Amino acid sequence: MARVGVRRWSRVAVIAGIIFLGVTSVPDAQMYSAGLICPTSTLVVQGLPIGRAAASPCPGQEWARTYGTGGFLGAVRQTADAGYIVSTQSNGKLLKLDSAGNIQWQKSYSGGLTSVLQTPDGGYIVGGFTESTGGDILLMKVDPAGAVQWRKTYGGGLDDLLWSLRLTSDGGYILAGRTYSFGVAAGAEHSVFLLKVDAQGNLLWSKVYGGSWRGGGESIAQLPDGGFIVVGEATLSNDEDVLALRLDPDGNVLWWRVLKGLDFETARAVQPTPDGGFIMVVYVKASSAKYLVVKLGADGTVAWQKVYGKAQLSSYLRDNAIRVTPDGGYIVAGSFTIGGQEDVLLFRLDASGNVQWAKTYGGGADERGRTVVPTADGGYLIGADLGWGTGVWLVKVDSQGRVAPSCPPGIGASLSLKATSGRLSPTTADLASATASPVVADAAVSPADISVTASTQCSA
Ligand SMILES: [Ca+2]
Ligand SMILES: [Ca+2]
Fold it and tell me: How far, in Å, from the CA of 132 to the mean position of ligand 1?
């Protein structure tokens, strides 16, 4: 095991330029001996396997299951034991799953839980918002069994919403979202809201970014210099446009961009790329909605932008809907409307944005992909909604998007997805930042045991 450890950490040095945070090494040998994953060594950075080539297909790990949560998916992440942690956005539930998708524990808390991450102690940090009128951002730390260690709320008199949460290099957390309570100029209905907190949730700083226009943060990532990239929306006139903000470790603006298109565009997910730039996925609400993937350079200039598909694509993209893969390409999740109903869509891009493969997953209901998790075995877990908030649908696929052989034909069907040029262009706007002073309150909650049932469509 010692030699394996040395090899992993030498990989850390080799790829230091793209390592940012949350480095953990998954104990592959233990998991493999337990029959959980394929025999590869994996370095995981914030849940993203980095440091080895894409694995050949690893048979026996694919499955599709529904979970009767009665609420929309908030987030899903892989855990150090090769299982998963799932949160629901609309009714405050956490589900801990094993690698095959079996429920190990489940609890109901309260609030909309939009984000969840495993912490180095094996527990979880959970972010979201209280669902009352004028609600606040909430952050909750639970132990490995889901018991609440602390829970705090942050906000002002109007709605404050959290859409993205990350571990930071100092052991604390960065929270990004939207605030109606605080602003930088009169007339702004809502603005980008960031909170930096320590490991116990104590507020270190809070800032709001915007102008006389409406803004909001949808996704954040910390960068090797300790600073941040934030993307979301900037509504300068009537239609939404894409906002990207590059910040230093204290939240000061280094550069910012508004990218204007012809329709309603909003960035939903961002990740740093190995070349020091950024990749983001943008939802475009046009006569037929589309996906737009935009590659930014380190200074925020557009390196390339591509629209994928002609058929109706859905708007349910969330944080982590695009992820960088170990070979420098990208995996993108979402959904696709055809024949009057929606199916989940997953597509794989090379580093230049060319489609390597695209697949759809679904049945007669509306299945809507929100997020994708690169898994330690080289495959992916797709996080989706099943119907209108009736439940969560998770589909574990291999490195090529393939599913278990027993799956119905509609789960894992190949799709021809054509790329065309995007049409966003930089525009100027006023932007300022200001210190916000949210009220921070301890907000205890007693979790309730629940009995969500899982049902299996197909498995190996
Ligand atoms: Ca509030
Ligand atoms: Ca469907």
Answer: 9
41, pLDDT greater than 90: no
pLDDT (0 to 100) of residue 416: 92
Q: Which ligand is nearest to the CA of 361?
A: 2
Residue 363 Cα, ligand 2 centroid: separation in angstroms?
A: 4
Give 34's contacts (C-beta < 8 A, 6+ positions apart): none
Please name the amino acid found at residue 107. Answer: K
Q: HEC string of 302-349?
A: EEEEEEECCCEECCCCCCCCEEECCCCCEEEEEEEEECCEEEEEEEEE
**Nearest ligand, CA 137:** 1
Cα 140 from Cα 20, distance rounded (Å): 24
Statement: residue 45 has pLDDT above 50: no
Question: How far apart, in whole angstroms, are the C-alpha atoms of residue 213 and residue 191?
Answer: 8
pTM: 0.87
Where are the domains positioned within the chain? Answer: 2-50, 85-319+416-459
Please name the residue that has the structure tokens 């599913």.
403
pLDDT band at 1 (very low <50, low <70, confident <90, very high): very low
CATH number of 85-319+416-459: 2.130.10
Residue 322 to residue 347: CA distance in whole angstroms: 10
Q: Mean pLDDT over all residues of the chain? A: 87
